[in-house]
Amino acid sequence: MKLLIAAAATALLAPAAQAHRAADPLTAPIASSYAADWLAPQAPLRIWGNSYYVGTAGLSVVLIKTPAGLILIDASMPQGVAAVEAHIRQLGVKITDIKYILVTEPHFDHSGGAAALARDSGATVIASPPTARALRAGQVGPDDPQSGSLAAFPAVTRVREIGDGQSVTLGGVSVTARLTPGHTAGSTSWTWSSCEAGKCLNLVFAASLNPVSTDGFRFTGTELPAVFRRSGQRLAALPCDILISAHPDNSGMDAKLRALAISRTPNPFVAPAACRAYAARAEEKLDARLAKEKAQAAR
Hints:
The protein has about 300 residues and is an alpha/beta fold. Helix content is about 35%, strand content about 20%. The radius of gyration is 18 Å and the shape is globular.
């Protein structure tokens, strides 16, 4: 209950703090019709072992504790940074202990806060080459299906590129990049192992796999359907005891967060079939999108 109260309190910053954030170009709000739902309060929770949920209700951000510092996966929206940092502090660690910020995709909802978090922590941002290019520019490129309909975000000046299958290691913990493109050209899922009470499990932070685009874009006739299918197949084949999706409601994780806040026994996140189900739902959405495009073309 204390954590729930504290999480709700972070959404109501003191007037002085609000003024500071409003004047900060790296945390200036990005308007979105989804922002209220994405940024709804969510208490920080231990998912498993050294891995914690520190995001908001609609945007996943994960913190991994190691003896040598912290690893953060994803960065929320610029206006979500205050809540993420408050959650991290509630776990008894310092923002400056963050050494790496790993990014799934260069959209403002997942990496819009990366520049502010990197500045506040001194951490190095790490992303796939296509994602790194977009982060440096502060906007997606023309190869993104949503290009032209997404807001720009604060550019990240210091980004280290990582290749498929390469790992970031800190304090004996290795997090591996798994390229799962489609939603964006550089979409990256991240995998690692975490142990609790002598039981080690495989965790997957999955990038979005849904075929979303700007108005007028057609997936039909492009290579993207095949790219989506390969990424889904790859994700489904990963060792996956615990799935964390970039948007909780894309995988039923929102219900798991609510259940975990009530009881850790049994842990609702432990679900070895979750990655396969997530990939299967994504393929269903792709099939539906292609069928819709076919129907529209036949009119």
